[in-house]
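Write out this protein's structure.
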Amino acid sequence: MALLAPPSAPFASRMAIRSDLDGLPVADARRALAGLPAPGGYEVLVKPMRYRKSPSLSALCEFDERRIVLRVPEPFRPFDELVYHSARREPVPGMRFIWLSENVMFSTRRDVLRFLYCHEWLHWYLREVLGRRAMAEAACDRFALRHFRRREVTADDVNAALRGCRSQPVPELLLAA
């Protein structure tokens, strides 16, 4: 199967960004996401995420609303998160897997924004560009993990991340909605 290049609007300067997070103006959010591919026609919304005990990662791609929502822990303090990026099958009878993970330190809001955006952008890419189901969590985590600290992400990076990803096509009924 041939993989497609992302749409022609490749960088954050062309994104529609809105920030509901106090202390993070749109200009700062745009700078944080600079060098990342744009989600053609989708708005990026940055919202605060309140927590009781410790910060964590939270975001979603709302296909019906044509919006990517990035939730930044508030108040922000550096934290680490265990990111599961792939699985290996155990050599035992039945279907058992060992999940492979990496502990990632998020020391700035920029790190959180870029990681969450890379993850959710790949969900968008799978559905809107490739017409596949966007539920490839391990592939999205792997893509975000490899690229969120890079200055620029290209179509070659996306295509490399999707090699071996076996997500299914989106049913025609869902695409028409």
